[in-house]
Write a structure and sequence with these properties.
Elements lengths: L1 E6 L8 H16 L4 E6 L10 H12 L5 H18 L3 E7 L7 H10 L6 E4 L2 E4 L5 E7 L10 H4 L1 H12 L4 E7 L5 H20 L3
Parallel strand pairs: 1-2, 1-3, 3-6, 6-7
Antiparallel strand pairs: 4-5
Helix pairs in contact: 1-7, 2-3
Bound molecules: flavin mononucleotide.
Flavin mononucleotide binds next to helix 1 and strand 3.
Length: 207
């Protein structure tokens, strides 16, 4: 079994999403003695710019044209990133809420790898995701708590976006672990983190 951890927070030492993801991963490793873990930090990984040769490579693929060597190189970089997702049985994504959505570097990774004939196929029958069979665990950290003041249907573009992405790439099993109120000081933070960590350990025993 192989687990990929996509780190979406730049905070590292103080990150609530990475902290809870680590609780999940440590518990998962206990249940999978031979399991391997790959970490993809979107803040230190050289994500390919999606313009120029990469964009032309995408449209060459869509229109059935032969790619130039430069376009092939750009596409190879995208495939190499996507391969890290294909190798995983379980994908854990640490996702800070930023402006009620997700951080731009995580969106950059998703935009780079979510391509036709890479993570999905698309024809007259519609969209078919190619990552089926994998399990995704989204650790969604946010400063506020969703609820009456911030109703999820109006404010939660974080969970909604990650659920949509799972569905678009064919992943049916998408678990969301929330850690909320991370901006309300160490006490509230500690309480929400420990509750989320406990949920993470319980989930890890099932995956
Ligand atoms: C640029 C930025 C934007 C943020 N926007 C929101 C927001 O819209 N809603 C919210 O609840 N928290 C927001 N926060 C707070 C973070 O979601 C919170 O600190 C969370 O714990 C971040 O995850 P991390 O601890 O894993 O880095 C924002 C933080 C930053 C740095």
């Amino acid at each position: 079994m192989h687990l990929l951890h996509i780190e979406g927070s730049p905070r590292k030492q103080r990150s609530a999403s990475i902290d809870v993801a680590h609780a999940f991963i440590d518990a998962w490793k206990e249940g999978h003695a031979d399991g391997t873990v790959d970490t993809l930090d979107v803040w230190t990984t050289d994500l390919p710019a999606f313009d120029g040769a990469a964009l032309d490579a995408k449209y060459a693929g869509l229109t059935g044209q032969t790619r130039t060597p430069e376009q092939e190189r750009a596409w190879d970089a995208i495939r190499a990133l996507a391969d890290r997702l294909f190798r995983a049985d379980v994908i854990v994504v640490s996702v800070p809420m930023w402006n009620f959505g997700i951080p731009y570097r995580l969106k950059h990774l998703i935009d780079a790898v979510s391509q036709k004939d890479v993570l999905f196929s698309f024809d007259e029958r519609g969209l078919t995701g190619l990552l089926g069979g994998r399990k995704v665990v989204v650790v969604a950290a946010r400063g506020i708590a969703l609820g009456p003041d911030y109703p999820a249907q109006d404010f939660d573009f974080q969970g909604a976006y990650m659920r949509m992405w799972c569905s678009m790439v064919g992943i049916k099993e998408c678990h969301i672990l929330a850690v909320e109120k991370t901006l309300y000081g160490p006490e509230a933070d500690a309480e929400s983190r420990s509750a989320a960590r406990a949920n993470a350990v319980t989930l890890a025993a099932r995956l």
